[in-house]
Specification:
This protein is of the alpha+beta class. The protein is 42% helix and 25% strand. The strands form 2 sheets. An 8-stranded antiparallel β-barrel has the order 3-6-7-9-11-12-13-14. A hairpin with a 2-residue loop joins strand 11 and strand 12. Helix 1 packs antiparallel against helix 2 and helix 2 packs across helix 3. The chain is elongated. It starts with 5 loop residues before the first helix and ends with a strand. Bound molecules: protoporphyrin IX containing FE (2 copies).
């Protein structure tokens, strides 16, 4: 039995499964709302991967020998035409998708798998509508060709009993006969199940800073002991406490469920949003805040205001410019006490390629090894070139960033 090369077989099934995934996700993209941005990025990333793998597959077609065609005459010609059509679909779908994002009114940067920036194709804006139409229609053309292709393969394999399907299997195994085509169904189902679950706890992130602080204040009563202890070492008549040996400051592991949000006034309204992805490394002894070492990294592409169109704008060059600068980083060495359980950390914020001094305020509540952190920072957005275009004219110059999370000492 002649068969395709292993690499051609691998690419055949991998590309087929990914195409099914793309169609499942693509159909839902328009209605995605808050979670749109990440899925758009995934759709575009996998689409470009398909484009590259298809180019590789075409190259391999000329490099590795293929089995001789099983059929001649009109049926052979039909099989050939369907294969050619499938290649047009495999190349056309990603190319029209790429053209579509390159000519959109709001240019949303694409970071392939969060790493490689995808340049925009130099095409006129007039291409946008036809590119979208073609992208949309090609999916259906692909499905129709797929149906013909599968019908042909099944006819050969099961009716004509010529074992054609083994040509696209690395070994003659009934399990693979079910599993490899099954991958296409898996791709489609995966594309459906990663789709909209309710937006991640945006509500927690949207709590305005005042409310966060109120919550922290309510915790003060509960934390009276702690507060008293924290206040005591500073007083002269408690020398014993001052002399207590101080071990290395503990590491605080941020617990799931926290949030970093932002709000800014815009022509009398307030725009609020949150960052779904961020990490914080915190080393600090609450009784000796000068020991603090804080590093917070925020994945700017995860910013959402609950509207995928505006989220796309946020990621663009006018606001965060995530393609060139995917992260905002705040670092501070040392913090100072500003009240019973209040602190201020003055450090550096690096955002959109600019690093400037920035301070944050926060309160700690809770006791011992489990604490709650709540705080905020006021950022002068112009210093970082955030909101430097036409759509930002009504935007207030100061943006409030607020955060709340639980942390455990390790
Ligand atoms: C490789 C295979 C791809 C397939 C099979 C595919 C399939 C689809 C499908 C079925 C839709 C829904 C169209 C509709 O609403 O009627 C869609 C939407 C979309 N695709 Fe793709 N896509 C692919 C690659 C790409 C690539 C590479 C990009 C961009 C770099 C892209 C960008 C988009 C965009 C932006 C939309 C949403 C358009 C809108 O609703 O406004 N796609 N895709
Ligand atoms: C259950 C689904 C599928 C089955 C059972 C299947 C089966 C096969 C078989 C047996 C061949 C070899 C034909 C021969 O040797 O003459 C083949 C070739 C091919 N298949 Fe599929 N296929 C499936 C899905 C797909 C999908 C989704 C695509 C692309 C969108 C695709 C694209 C191709 C292409 C382009 C070839 C020709 C390879 C070449 O000679 O260059 N197939 N397929």
């Amino acid at each position: 039995m002649q068969r395709y090369s292993r690499i051609a077989i691998f690419l055949h099934w991998a590309i087929a499964a990914m195409l099914a995934f793309q169609i499942a996700v693509g159909w839902a993209l328009e209605d995605l709302g808050a979670r749109g941005f990440a899925l758009f990025q995934l759709h575009k990333s996998i689409g470009i991967l398909i484009l590259l793998l298809t180019l590789a597959r075409i190259a391999i077609r000329y490099w590795k020998p293929r089995p001789a065609p099983t059929e001649h005459g009109w049926q052979g010609a039909l099989a050939k035409a369907v294969h050619a059509g499938l290649y047009v679909f495999m190349l056309g779908a990603p190319l029209t998708g790429w053209a579509l994002v390159s000519t959109a009114k709001v240019k949303v940067p694409t970071l392939i798998f969060g790493v490689v920036p995808l340049p925009h194709l130099p095409l006129p804006m007039s291409v946008n509508d036809p590119a979208f139409a073609a992208h949309s229609v090609l999916a259906w053309v692909g499905i129709a060709l797929f149906a013909l292709h599968v019908a042909g393969a099944l006819r050969h394999h099961f009716l004509m009993r010529d074992g054609l399907m083994w040509r696209m299997m690395p070994v003659r195994s009934p399990a693979l006969l079910a599993a490899l085509p099954g991958l296409i169904a898996v791709g489609f189902v995966l594309g459906r199940i990663i789709l909209p679950t309710p937006a991640p706890k945006a509500i927690a992130a949207l709590v305005p800073p005042v409310a966060v602080e109120e919550e922290a204040a309510a915790n003060v009563a509960e934390a009276v002991d702690n507060v008293a202890n924290a206040a005591l070492p500073a007083s002269a008549d408690n020398a014993a406490a001052v002399e207590e040996p101080v071990g290395p400051p503990p590491n605080w592991a941020v617990q799931p469920g926290g949030s970093i949000g932002f709000s800014v006034g815009n022509s009398g309204e307030t725009i609020s949003g949150n960052f779904a992805k961020w990490t914080a490394k915190i080393v600090m002894n609450p009784d000796h805040p000068d020991s603090a070492d804080i590093r917070v990294e925020i994945d700017l592409a995860s910013a959402s205001v609950g509207d995928s169109y505006k989220d796309g704008m946020l990621a663009g060059d006018e606001f965060f410019g995530v393609a060139a600068h995917p992260k905002a980083v705040f670092t501070a060495k040392g913090a100072e006490k500003t009240g019973a359980n209040g602190y201020r950390a003055s450090g550096t914020l690096s955002l959109k390629g600019v690093s400037k001094p920035q301070s944050i305020r926060f309160t700690l509540s809770g006791k011992g090894k489990a604490r709650k952190v709540a705080g905020s920072a006021t950022i002068t957005r112009a210093s970082f070139g955030v909101g430097n275009g036409d759509s930002s004219t009504g935007l207030d110059p100061k943006v409030t960033v607020h955060f709340g999370f639980s942390a455990k000492a390790e």
